[in-house]
Automatic annotation (TrEMBL):
Classification of source organism: Bacteria, Bacillati, Actinomycetota, Actinomycetes, Micrococcales
Domain DUF559, residue spans: 204-283
Pfam family membership, one: DUF559
Protein name: DUF559 domain-containing protein
SUPFAM superfamilies named in the record: Restriction endonuclease-like
């Protein structure tokens, strides 16, 4: 027979562990109301805060000490992580990391106005439930449409489509502002990377067929310009075995009568005029023709 005192201690540990597990499932930050709704005792929550197992962020909000600092800041100040900050947290391709966090706040939120952050006050495309700390993908993309330059925003939108976080059809059903509607019309679900997203709009002025991810000689090519000019765009992972495979494929393409231009991240993002000039010279020489 287990002594009564030991049974009580074990029950107390289970209650403590239950609260900590619930906070962990919530992403490391939770409202006290949500914990109580889940059947957890306010007394146990207070004891965990007193012992340092939980941090009290502000009235009604607690967090694990190891929680995401962005999430803790959002709970502490009553705002929602959105725009490029939440896009990066979701693993989307963002060209330029923000200097300060981007958050959303309801109108007349005095607390948010004092934050060292970029605050978005616009009405969300999808309503935010009370206690929300992070925006849904639809709201993230709509806020980005009104915050970033068109090209930078398009990179994030197409990245979201590639990751399967939403679809053009789902976004089309929303009441989108003009900027977001323009991005939806321009976005292409077939781009394989953020770098491809940048390149195609920059080359449309040529008036030539631009086909992404065409299968030639056993592999896909990033962009086929006209009939025979191939643009291959290397990301940071094109090293080692991948690089060797790419070189072999380039050789095979050239033997089949294609002309290959291979560029990297630095060239596309920071030295685009050089890339464009190389493509223009190739077109001027007719290398895009069969």
């Amino acid at each position: 027979m287990i002594p009564l005192e030991e049974r009580r201690d074990a029950a107390a540990r289970r209650r403590r562990d239950g609260v900590l597990a619930a906070v962990a499932r919530a992403g490391g930050v939770s409202s006290v109301a949500a914990l109580k709704q889940g059947g957890h005792s306010r007394h146990v929550i207070d004891r965990l805060c007193a012992d340092g197992a939980l941090l009290r962020l502000r009235k009604g909000w607690v967090a694990l000490p190891t929680a995401d600092p962005h999430l803790m800041a959002a709970a502490r100040h009553g705002v929602v992580l959105t725009c490029v900050t939440q896009a990066e947290r979701l693993g989307l391709f963002v060209l330029h990391s923000p200097a300060t966090p981007h958050v959303a706040a309801p109108p007349h939120s005095g607390r948010a106005g004092r934050l060292a952050a970029t605050v978005h006050w616009s009405t969300p495309a999808v309503p935010r439930p009370p206690g929300t700390l992070v925006d849904g993908i639809e709201n993230v993309l709509v806020v980005i449409a009104g915050c970033l330059p068109f090209e930078d925003a398009l990179v994030v939108w197409e990245s979201a489509f590639r990751r399967g976080l939403t679809t053009p059809a789902a976004l089309a059903r929303l009441n989108l502002p003009t900027g977001a509607r323009a991005l939806l019309e321009a976005a292409d679900v077939f781009s394989d990377s953020g770098l491809e997203t940048l390149v195609v709009p920059r080359l449309r002025w040529l008036g030539l067929p631009l086909r992404r991810q065409v299968w030639i000689a056993g592999h896909r090519v990033d962009l086929l310009i006209g009939e025979r000019l191939v643009l291959q765009i290397d990301g940071a992972t094109h090293t080692g075995v991948q690089r060797t495979s790419d070189i072999a494929h380039d050789a095979e393409l050239m033997l089949l009568g294609y002309h290959v231009i291979r560029v990297g991240y630095e060239q596309v993002v920071h030295r685009w005029p050089e890339v464009q000039e190389r493509i223009m010279r190739a077109v001027a020489q007719g290398l895009h023709h069969a």
